[in-house]
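Class, study these two lines:
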Amino acid sequence: MSDHQLFLAVFLGGKDTPRMKAWMAMPEDERRAKEHEGIAAWKAWVEQHKASIVEMGGPLGKTRTIGADGVTDTTNRLTGFTVVRSASHADAAKMFEGHPHFTIFPGETIDVMPVLPIPAG
C-alpha cells in the first residue's frame, strides 16, 4: 500500500446545535435506542473499512489551549477522529459518506484532510 497516503478524519459537532438540542430533547428510552442503533451502524462502518483504518481514534474530551499566554480551558467543535489510508483524497472522503456520526448521531460533519510529510530541514 505504499502508493496510499494517510488522511485524518475529524468529526465535528456542537452542544448548542439544533441537532444536539433535538437529540437531548428525545425521551431517554428513545435516545438510548438511537445510541444502540448508532453504535451498531458505526461498528458496521468499521468492519466495512477495516482494511483502510490505520488508527480508529475515538471521541474527544474537554479541550485545553496552550499558547504564549499559558493554558486555558476552551471549547471547539471537534468531537472525534479517525486516521485512514487511501489512494486519494476523494476516495478517503467517500469512506465517510452516510456515516452514522451525522446520519444517526447528532454530529454535523466530518472533515477529511491529508496528513502531509514533515518538510526536510
